[in-house]
Amino acid sequence: MKQKTAIILGATGLTGGILLDKLLEDERYHKILVFTRNHVRQKHEKIEEYLIDLFELDQFQELFKADEVYCCVGTTKQKTPDKEIYRKVDFCIPATAAKLSKKNQIKTFQVISAMGADEHSRIFYNRVKGEMEGAVLEQKISNTYILQPALIGGEREESRFFESVFKKIMSVGDHLLVGSLKKYRSIHPSTIADAMIHLANNEYRSGIIQNDEIKNIAEKEKK
Known about the structure:
- This protein is α/β, with parallel strands linked by helices.
- It is 38% helix and 17% strand.
- It is globular and about 45 Å long.
- The relative contact order is 0.13.
- This is Putative NAD(P)-binding protein.
C-alpha cells in the first residue's frame, strides 16, 4: 500500500488538531505537512511543520505538495470583528490553498465551510463562506469536498463564553430537533475529522456535504 502525504491548514484549531491526531495514527499516511503561524502541540516524526504567515501562503508553492489538502482554517465574528481580516481568514486562505493545489496537481481538496453559506446572502459572514465555496469549486480539483457542519461542539483552548453557553443550550436542544430540523443538530469535531479521512480514502461524489451527510460518512470510517 502506497503511503500518502497530507497537508493540514488550521492544525492548531479544534477540528484541525483532532484531524492531525487521527492522521498521525493512520498507517495510510507517512508524512503530514503543517502550515501554521504557531507550533502544533503534537510532536511526531510524521510531522513536517512550516511556520508561516498564512496570508502569504501563495509564496510557498514549492513546499505545498502532497496527495491531499485539508483546510480547517476559520474564525468567528467574536474572535475577528474586523471584517477585512475575517475575509482574509475565511476566504483568502482557503481560496489560495485551492489554487496551489490545482497548480501542484493535488487531486483531493477538502475545506470546512458552514451551514448557511451563500454567496448571495445579505449576512456578511454567510456570504463570505459562500464566496469561498465558489472560489474553491472554480479550481475544478478532481476530488473536492466542501463540508458544511452546523454548530461545532467540543472545547477550544481560547475562551468563547457566549459560544460555550450556546453549546450547552444546544446539547439539550439537539434532542428537540427532529424531522426536518434534525439537520441543525450540533456536530463534534471528531466526527468532521472522521468524515474527511473517509472521503480522502474512498470514492465519493465531489461537492457540498451537509451536516447530516457528514455524520453518516463519519460512521462509515468508524466501521
